[in-house]
């Protein structure tokens, strides 16, 4: 994919900034952002306005869709505007422009309410002596159990991706990103299960970008090599060749 033209929505965010650093020497990058992004061509518009964002997609080979309201306590108004309508608009603009692949930043929040139940509750509690002896891993085929309206909106995005792939023949790959804090290390007990380093998340995103054209749709979890993780990373290893370089356990 070297030299391909890649549009990143939400490039000014934490993950967008990290991804830019990894890609900018090998791809022709542009940004779709509400605010300016210095050093790359940036189309300034809100993803909730389809007509306003269309020019950003012209001539792009690929789109990495990171822009979203990314908080568990997001209101219905916030998720409707940015995560529901906005995600539809990004997929639709990609379709109209003939974009070959979209990588959609989904979230571990699609399943995170499993942490209300044992043994997953114990995995994320951080309480000494509460770690279970064993637990079943959640895979990309496990039932969703979204946390908050934010998690629900990401379930919608994955379903919408499946629709666009089946109806229009696009390729859309969904990455359920774990906890990626600015400190780039676990900052609370739950992250010893759900943490994903910035290095690992951008590696995963690029591997989704570079996956064979024959991969039209898939869902992958994105966490680092954490001993207490309950999210299956065998699938991205088998399909994408991904092996995490970092582990939350290094910070204990």
Unreliable stretches: none
Tally of structural domains: 1
End-to-end gap: 38 Å
Number of helices: 8
Oligomer: single chain
The amount of helix comes to: 25-40%
- The CATH superfamily appears as NAD(P)-binding Rossmann-like Domain
Known CATH architecture? 3-Layer(aba) Sandwich
The residue-averaged pLDDT reads 95
Biggest sheet, spatial arrangement of strands: 3-2-1-4-5-6-7
Q: How many strands appear in the DSSP assignment?
A: 7
Globally, the shape reads globular
What is the rounded Rg? 18 Å
CATH C-level: Alpha Beta
Task: Give a short account of the largest sheet.
Answer: 7 strands, parallel
List keywords for this structure.
single chain; 252 residues; alpha/beta; Rossmann fold; seven-stranded parallel sheet; 8 helices; 7 strands; globular
Please tell me about this protein's structure.
With 252 residues, the protein is an alpha/beta fold. The chain has a single domain (5-251), classed as Rossmann fold (3-Layer(aba) Sandwich). The chain contains eight helices and seven strands, in the order E-H-E-E-H-E-H-E-H-H-E-H-H-E-H. A seven-stranded parallel β-sheet has the order 3-2-1-4-5-6-7, with helices on both faces. Helix 1 (14-23) crosses helix 7 (198-210) and helix 3 packs parallel to helix 5. The longest helix has 22 residues, at 76-97. It is globular. The mean pLDDT is 95.
């Amino acid at each position: 994919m070297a030299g391909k033209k890649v549009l990143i929505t939400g490039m000014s965010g934490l993950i967008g900034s990290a991804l830019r650093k990894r890609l900018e020497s090998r791809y022709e990058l542009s940004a779709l952002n509400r605010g300016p992004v210095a050093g790359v061509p940036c189309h300034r518009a809100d993803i909730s306005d389809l007509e306003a964002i269309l020019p950003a997609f012209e001539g792009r080979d690929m789109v990495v869709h990171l822009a979203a309201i990314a908080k568990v306590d997001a209101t219905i108004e916030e998720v409707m505007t940015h995560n529901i309508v906005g995600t539809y608009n990004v997929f639709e603009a990609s379709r109209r422009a003939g974009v070959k692949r979209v990588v959609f930043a989904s979230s571990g929040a699609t399943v995170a309410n499993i942490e209300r139940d044992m043994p997953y509750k114990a995995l994320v509690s951080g309480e000494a002596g509460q770690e279970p002896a064993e637990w079943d891993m959640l895979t990309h085929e496990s039932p969703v159990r979204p946390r908050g309206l934010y998690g629900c909106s990401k379930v919608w995005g994955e379903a919408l991706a499946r629709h666009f792939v089946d109806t229009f023949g696009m390729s859309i790959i969904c990455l359920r990103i774990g906890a990626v804090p600015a400190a780039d290390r676990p900052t609370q007990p739950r992250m010893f299960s759900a943490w994903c380093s910035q290095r690992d998340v951008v590696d995963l995103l690029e591997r989704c970008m570079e996956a064979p054209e024959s991969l039209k749709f898939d869902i992958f979890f994105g966490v680092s090599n954490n001993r207490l993780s309950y999210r299956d990373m065998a699938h991205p290893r088998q399909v994408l060749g991904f092996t995490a370089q970092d582990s939350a356990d290094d910070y204990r």
